Amino acid sequence: xxxxxxxxxxxxxxxxxxxxxxxxxxxxxxxxIEALGGKLHHLFFAFGKHDVICLIEGPDDTFMAAGAMAVAxxxxxxxxxxxxxxxxxxxxxxxxxAGKATGAYTPPMG
Length: 110
Known about the structure:
The protein is 43% helix and 29% strand. Strand 2 and strand 3 form a beta hairpin. The protein contains 4 helices and 4 strands. It is an alpha+beta fold. It has a 4-stranded antiparallel beta sheet. It has one domain (2-101): Lrp/AsnC effector binding domain/regulation of amino acid metabolism (RAM) domain (Alpha-Beta Plaits, 2-Layer Sandwich).
């Protein structure tokens, strides 16, 4: 399973609707993610550029793209971004592989 950091900003209209009639966005997100075969580990509302930040676990990048598309298709998100995360164990594997390949790369010379 892969991990993803999904960040989104709501439209003005979506915020207005949530203020007028508060709804559990974590439950809504979990339902979508579970329907696609994944798990929502955390959903946080945040200050700053993004209104919501989620930590999601799922089978692959196609799963995550489908979820992001489903959310975007609702028209309530003004922007979003998805970052594929690696565990420390996966990063160590990448470091070892990079170490083996380092001599095969010729850097540009100015």
